[in-house]
Design brief:
The chain has 355 residues and is of the alpha+beta class. The chain folds into 2 domains: 6-239, 3-Layer(aba) Sandwich (Rossmann fold), CATH 3.40.50.300; 244-354, OB fold (Dihydrolipoamide Acetyltransferase, E2P), CATH 2.40.50.140. Helix content is 22%, strand content 33%. It has helices at residues 46-54, 100-104, 113-126, 142-154, 172-188, 200-206, 224-229, 234-239; strands at 6-13, 23-30, 35-39, 61-66, 69-72, 85-88, 160-164, 192-197, 209-214, 217-222, 244-250, 255-257, 260-262, 273-278, 283-286, 294-303, 307-314, 324-330, 340-345, 351-354. The chain has a 6-stranded mixed β-sheet, with helices on both faces. Strands 13-12-11-14-20 form a 5-stranded antiparallel β-sheet. The structure holds adenosine-5'-diphosphate and magnesium ion.
């Protein structure tokens, strides 16, 4: 196993004016070349985590390592400029009175002029803007400014690149393209990066690994597939993608729900009440009855372009409350609100949570 490029060990941070910690006992290890995305709601501690790594904040306890070197602990403190960390700020923070070329070579003052020139042209080619060295930041579009900010951060060949909500100032139309660009640039330079977002789609599309942060705690560290298909907490199930939680009871054969038996092992004793998580794509709707299909009424139909999103209500069940489920369905055969239809639920991939 290669040495992790970034390692947090039991890091804690509480700001002096507050009694709630911004980062709590956080441990995380990121291998070389990984694009790690920190995902969490607003105020969950994402920016604080980046600032601790960059050296703009000091942890109360814990240790942080970069390439095996301890950069902060109760005994150690490596100053921000000596950490080999590049940062792209949310507003890019380009120097307005300097040209693109001067911005990009700003952190290269220790190199000979010929090497600075070489790096500059390499960086401009990397960001696909070879001819803008003499332009000023205000002459560039938002997307171009962001690429220049990336080039400036990458020019000194940092060990780690940090990006805080890098797409929040980019037009929605351009965001997809900029995500692809950022990923291409990071991969082609083998840069280990930590990118912060509160947008779950962005995290899933971009990340090699996602760190889910909630109230300063790391709730899960996994691939986008792990996070979506195997969330470890109810918070993650609700925060990432659409999910439904149904009541269930543990039996010897699995977990019994109102929509069938989920053939999954639960650590809880037989008879324990639990929650079963379903995703809309596990629910299939059909106009005609068939074996194992349950009768439901379409309560809501929404066209999402290419597919319909439905909310259906289970008709015959013995729970006290109405049981509503969500389903997505190809647009070819739309169902109508109020229509009686039939539902089959694939419970193989359902997840069980203790309630
Ligand atoms: P996020 O980036 O996930 O939105 P932050 O890391 O900015 O979250 O903030 C986490 C918590 O720490 C919030 O409650 C925020 O108000 C608090 N916080 C952040 N920075 C400071 C600061 N400099 N002083 C006091 N409280 C802060
Ligand atoms: Mg933030």
């Amino acid at each position: 196993m290669a040495l992790p490029t970034i390692e947090f060990r039991n890091v804690n941070k509480t700001f002096s004016q507050r009694d709630i910690p911004a980062v709590r006992d956080l441990s995380l290890s990121i291998s070389p070349g990984t694009l790690a995305v920190v995902l969490g709601p607003s105020g969950s501690g994402k920016t604080t985590l980046l600032r601790l790594l960059a050296g703009f904040e000091r942890p109360d306890s814990g240790e942080i390592f970069v390439n095996g070197q301890c950069i902060v602990s109760p005994q150690e403190w490596v100053s921000p400029e000596k950490r080999g960390i590049g940062m792209v700020f949310q507003d890019y923070a380009l120097f307005p009175h300097l040209t693109v070329g001067q911005n990009i070579t700003f952190g290269l003052k220790d190199l000979p002029a010929s090497e600075q020139e070489k790096r500059l042209h390499k960086m401009l080619r990397l960001i696909n803007l070879p001819n803008i060295a003499h332009a000023y930041p205000h002459e560039l579009s938002g997307g171009q400014q962001q690429r220049v900010a990336m080039a400036r951060a990458l020019a000194p060949h940092p060990k780690v690149l940090l990006m805080d909500e890098p797409f929040s100032n980019i037009d929605p139309d351009l965001r997809q393209h900029m995500r692809d660009e950022v990923k291409r640039i990071l991969k082609s330079t083998h840069t280990t990066a930590l990118l912060v977002t509160h947008d779950q789609r962005e995290a899933i599309e971009l990340a090699d690994y996602i760190a889910i942060i909630n109230e300063g705690r790391l709730e899960q560290w996994g691939t986008p597939q792990d996070i979506y298909c195997r969330p470890v907490t109810v918070f993650i199930a609700n925060f990432v993608g659409r999910s439904m939680l149904l009541p269930g009871v543990v039996t010897e054969k699995g977990v019994q729900t109102q929509v069938g038996l989920a053939p999954i092992h639960s650590e809880n004793a037989v008879g324990t009440k639990v929650k079963v998580m379903l995703r809309p794509e596990m629910v299939q709707l059909q106009a005609e009855p068939s074996a194992n299909a349950l009768a439901v009424r379409v309560m809501q139909a929404r066209y999402w372009g290419g597919e319909y999103h439905y909310v259906v209500q289970l008709l015959h069940h013995n729970a006290d409350e109405d049981l509503l489920l969500q389903a997505t369905h190809p647009a070819a055969t739309p169902l109508q609100e109020g229509q009686l239809v039939y539902m089959r639920v694939n419970l193989q991939e359902a997840r069980v949570f203790s309630s």
